[in-house]
Design a protein that fits this description.
- The chain has 3 helices and 28 strands.
- Helices cover about 10% and strands about 35% of the residues.
- Strand 20 (about 335-340) and strand 21 (about 345-350) form a beta hairpin.
- The protein has helices spanning about 5-20, 30-40, 45-55, and strands at about 100-105, 110-115, 120-125, 140, 150-155, 160-170, 175-180, 190, 195-205, 210-215, 220-225, 235, 245-250, 255-260, 265, 290, 295-300, 310-315, 325-330, 335-340, 345-350, 360, 370-380, 385-390, 395-400, 410, 430, 435-440.
- It has a 4-stranded antiparallel beta sheet, with no helix packed on it. A 4-stranded antiparallel beta sheet has the order 5-6-7-8, with no helix packed on it.
- By secondary structure, the protein is mainly beta.
- The chain folds into 2 domains: about 5-55, no CATH class; about 100-410, 6 Propeller (Neuraminidase), CATH 2.120.10.
- The chain starts with a helix and ends with a strand.
Length: about 450
């Protein structure tokens, strides 16, 4: 940046921050900066603007005319690389990373979401790797026609034989595909959902679907067949709810169960039941954030607005640490949660409340659990499925499994030992010159 522009910017900063309330606008600026600010307020000719741009290397200069950075090259003769240029190297995972899992025991199928390859995969329920080899899926929904981006949660409607999924981060959509969808298939219907949707659950008895949303800290309820820009039936949102970065959600016959990371992000969320403004509207005010303990919150199935949960499970005894997806066995009154922070599966009594220890914990080297994101009960076959985000596999345990135990079956989606880069919505990149390392925050 030229000295001329630096002085002008400095003058504007001084004006904004140093002038006391009620003082003349330029009263406290030195004479030179006051003159520059006055000049900037006056109409500037095209010739002056062009001269400033040339001085700072922003535009091409006429042949032979020097600039602050030297002669700017003519585009036609320049040797600068541009256009469709291949990268020198790429860091990526060529295999799917299994994120969310749901079981349809009546059709003997299991479905999983894959944010790495922007896909949905289905497998035979009894499919398993005999050794270190991957298992071929029955179907794979993937391609530009699908519209899927960072695919988060997945669930199914066995009656209608439909697959539901939501896109986290920038997708802002819930998509519905038929069971037999395969390849680059268009969704049967698409619903616009709030930004940062993550969890998903269907209540067939009420014919409704629940979506958890991270940033606004809300649970949004829609008609099951909602599409396009249909508005929600109701919303659970507000300070009384205690929702903090909600992820996994289960919409049962009597209750809605939600896994919270505990992050109160500092954005004001209007309490109540009215739909929040769509993206592109005025930003919400910043009220100051805080971190609370991870928790499992339970609401009445018909809850709406700013209401307190019926029960909350939270505290050091719970061991909750980045709880992701969860599922509920309403017959045996148990909640199972994928505890990503310590690579464990934790089972709680459904009616538990407060700082309570889980009934059972599946954790340890023998389990093979590594960064779990998804978990699901198979109530018909008395099993628990785990989507192993950190190890290219899905694991199947007996429903009553506890401790450091080996899974009953392993379904690999890549050869055993294939590394996982662990990318999950990388939003930036930096280079550490001291350690010669590339840093990728997720």
């Amino acid at each position: 940046m030229s000295r001329r522009i630096q002085i002008a910017v400095g003058g504007l900063i001084a004006f904004a921050w140093l002038a006391p309330a009620g003082a003349p606008p330029l009263a406290r600026l030195p004479a030179r900066e006051r003159a520059l600010v006055t000049a900037l307020r006056s109409p500037v000719s095209e010739a002056t603007l062009l001269a400033l741009e040339r001085e700072n290397g922003c535009v091409e200069s006429p042949a032979g005319e020097p600039t602050a950075q030297g002669q700017w090259p003519e585009w036609k003769t320049a040797t600068i690389a541009g256009g469709d240029v291949p990268p020198a190297r790429v860091v990526s995972d060529p295999y799917p990373t299994l994120h969310s899992v749901v079981v349809d025991a009546e059709h003997d199928k299991v479905f999983m979401s894959d944010p790495n390859r922007h896909a949905l995969w289905s497998y035979a329920r009894t499919a398993a790797s005999k050794g270190g080899e991957p298992v071929d899926p029955l179907t794979g929904v993937r391609g530009p026609a699908t519209g899927m981006m960072f695919v988060a949660a997945i669930t199914v409607d066995p009656t209608a034989e439909e697959i539901y999924t939501v896109d986290n981060d920038i997708g802002d959509r819930m998509m519905v595909f038929p069971y037999d969808a395969n390849g680059n298939a268009k969704p049967r219907r698409v619903l616009s959902v709030p930004h940062q949707a993550w969890g998903l659950s269907i209540n067939r008895q009420r014919d409704e679907v629940a979506v958890s949303v991270e940033g606004p800290r809300e649970i949004v309820i829609y008609k099951r067949e909602a599409k396009n820009n249909d508005q929600p039936l109701r919303i659970i949102r507000g300070p009384k709810t205690g929702l903090g970065d909600p992820h996994g959600v289960f919409y049962g016959n009597a209750e809605i169960v939600v896994a919270n990371h505990g992050n109160q992000n500092g954005r004001y969320t209007p309490p109540g039941d009215a739909p929040a403004a769509r993206r592109g509207g005025p930003p919400e005010p910043i009220v100051g954030g805080r971190f609370e303990l991870p928790s499992i919150a339970v609401f009445a199935a018909d809850a709406k607005g700013d209401v307190a949960p019926i029960r909350t499970i939270a505290g050091t005894k719970t061991g909750l640490n980045w709880p992701m997806a969860l599922d509920v066995d309403e017959r045996r009154d148990e909640i199972v949660v994928a505890n990503n922070g310590d690579s464990s599966i934790r089972v709680f009594r459904r009616t538990a409340e407060g700082d309570v220890a889980p009934l059972r914990v599946i954790k340890g080297a023998l389990t093979g659990i590594n960064g779990p994101m998804g978990v699901a009960f198979d109530l018909k076959n008395d099993e628990i499925w785990v989507a192993n985000y950190g190890a290219h596999s899905a694991l199947v345990f007996a429903r009553t499994a506890a401790g450091n135990v080996a899974p009953k079956r392993i379904l690999r989606n890549a050869p055993s030992g294939s590394p996982t880069v662990g990318f999950g919505n990388p939003g930036a990149v930096a280079y550490d010159s001291k350690r010669d390392e590339i840093l990728v925050p997720n």
